[in-house]
């Protein structure tokens, strides 16, 4: 079996998307820093995007549906990254750390 034949199967893309989603979910649970959690959340969104594009290529009757969903996911990821980084900067200014264990005792 040729390596180029794998790119013509839906299962290949679904495995890649599930792998990205799984790595992101594991990283979200295991990371203790806010930056690590942000990167893991981006991996989760990338896995979802890969799945949408795979279904767009192989299953969807209208080829623009998966692309539109992926564009929405990219917009949400950009907004999430901007807001999360501003929160990380604010937390670092107040606590001089981005470790979630140190920030867990927030008062409010």
Keywords:
single chain; mainly alpha; Helix Hairpins; 4 helices; elongated
- Give the averaged pLDDT, no decimals: 86
**Helix/sheet category:** mainly alpha
Measured between the Cα atoms of the first and last residue, the distance is 60 Å
CATH topology: Helix Hairpins
What string gives the helices and strands in order? HHHH
Based on Cα principal axes, name the global outline.
Answer: elongated
Number of strands: 0
Beta-strand content: under 5%
CATH architecture: Orthogonal Bundle
Q: What is the count of DSSP helices, taking H or I runs of 4+ residues?
A: 4
Biggest beta sheet attributes: none
CATH class: Mainly Alpha
Low-pLDDT ranges: none
State the helical fraction.
over 70%
**How many domains make up the coordinates?**
1
Oligomer: single chain
- Could you tell me the radius of gyration in angstroms? 18 Å
Kindly describe this structure.
- The chain has 108 residues and is an all-alpha fold.
- It has a single domain (7-103), classed as Helix Hairpins (Orthogonal Bundle).
- It has 4 helices and no strands.
- Helix 1 runs antiparallel to helix 2 (34-58) and helix 2 packs antiparallel against helix 3.
- The radius of gyration is 18 Å and the shape is elongated.
- The protein starts with 9 loop residues before the first helix and ends in a 5-residue tail after the last helix.
- The mean pLDDT is 86.
Quick structural overview:
The protein has 108 residues and is an all-alpha fold. The protein is built from four helices and no strands.
Give the arrangement of secondary structure elements:
Elements (H helix, E strand, L loop, with lengths): L9 H21 L3 H25 L5 H32 L4 H4 L5
Helix pairs in contact: 1-2, 2-3
